[in-house]
Design brief:
The structure is a homotetramer of 138-residue chains. Chain A has a single domain (8-137), classed as Hotdog Thioesterase (Thiol Ester Dehydrase, Chain A, Roll), CATH 3.10.129. Helix content of chain A is 25%, strand content 38%. Chain A has helices spanning 27-45, 49-54, 128-137, and strands spanning 8-13, 57-68, 77-88, 91-100, 106-118. Chain A has a five-stranded antiparallel sheet. The longest helix of chain A has 19 residues, at 27-45. Chain A starts with 7 loop residues before the first strand and ends with a helix. Chains B and D meet through loops of B and loops of D.
């Protein structure tokens, strides 16, 4: 058990396609960034999500929440910080913070809840290797 | 005052671009559909969102939540049902249900919280006309 | 053989998420609309693309072109007109026009070239039923 | 004048949201990557596109073409190589190659044509500073 949870960081620039007619980032883009965050998290703890899929497991999203605090603009660099809030035998909950890289300002935060399913969409236990690995970092 | 809240309905087919490698609709697509839902709601109550924008007002999203119950697939028809959960002088909360048109199965539900801002991103009171109109239907 | 090619029409409103910081529709959205156009085309000639996929065939895109003539805005209604430019044993070329519904103004036009592949990504002949059907309407 | 044209490189991982039900990257995602490519190009030659916009100029897309050679998958790293094919007083043409980082395989290539417009959508000459700068690298 770690004393504090592991936090992964993804860093990228905001794409023009991610903005909308309010001249700021469209709120649905953050949902995609959260996903980018948990991809990076899995990669950094040593079990890329693509490997999980190649084993026939998927982490289906059952819930997502986002709270938007400040607007972000095209070309700004952002950092997505991802942690695991909890891990269960059949699922996992990730938590996210999106920060503006230039000044560390918190732009948005959120959470996503996932259940493990197989190729046929049936609920499955996460591979033990994954729950143990994530559990160690959570 | 209406006895029960007004519910708008949008109906459309799922686009291929809205699916992902799990062969189902990507969870961020529902966030876009919610937006489509509230666009239709505003249009149906007689105050299209585009008119609000042409007056210099915007409904910035401060919070969004979605709960996913069943997967949806390319080419299926869906219905988005939208209601107003509450309206305040400075904002409004919409609630959504996404149903599969073929059998009425509930696919997802969610909520979005909005504040009214002006061209410079400052919080503003919603035009009285809008709060009254929405208030009548909520 | 028909004397003139069949033209399908899809009609929908522009979504806010499809706009960008120039306050107009992002150019990549038209590529998605073209896809929506050929989906509707296949449905209207009686062979929905989803049926093709359920038989293990896919129409992979090998080329896409778009020419943008006028900007489009959120909430405007557009019409996508789709025709088949040519059909081959192993592929098909679709052609598109995007019009503003209000005044019939041409907003963009384009083309997409497709090859038929199977589940493993290998080139395949289109089912004869499909080439014949599309050939009749092209 | 440079002897050979400047080539910028953007490098990033494929997002899950960029895939579709064929389990590969959706063809419209490449159009967004091209944009990412020219953003990086402008940044690298010393005139970020965001600076152009802050001066009241925009590079509207009038044409885009893409040719798809090989499929790409979630989590693969790609490189977008961008060059300027030509620069005119009122516009510029960019050219792109998308490569899989792991083995340098060419996945797609394309081109986009742009005209310079102002806040009101009227054609304008590109700032001389920009045509000179890009001209030097083209």
């Amino acid at each position: 058990m770690s004393e504090k949870p592991f936090v992964s960081e993804s860093r990228f620039r905001i794409r023009y396609a991610e903005t909308d007619a309010m001249r700021i980032v469209h709120h649905s883009s953050y949902i995609v960034w959260f996903e980018e965050g948990r991809s990076e998290y899995m990669r950094q703890v040593g079990f890329p999500y693509s490997r999980l899929e190649s084993m026939g497991y998927y982490l289906a999203v059952t819930e997502v929440k986002a709270r938007y605090l400040r607007a972000a603009k095209y070309d700004e660099e952002v950092i997505v910080r991802t942690t695991v809030a909890s891990v269960r035998s059949r699922g996992v909950t990730f938590r996210y913070q999106v920060l503006r890289a230039a000044d560390g300002e918190l732009l948005a935060e959120g959470e996503s809840v996932h259940v493990c399913i197989d190729d046929d969409g049936r609920p499955r236990r996460l591979p033990k290797e994954v729950t143990e690995l994530i559990g160690r970092y959570a």
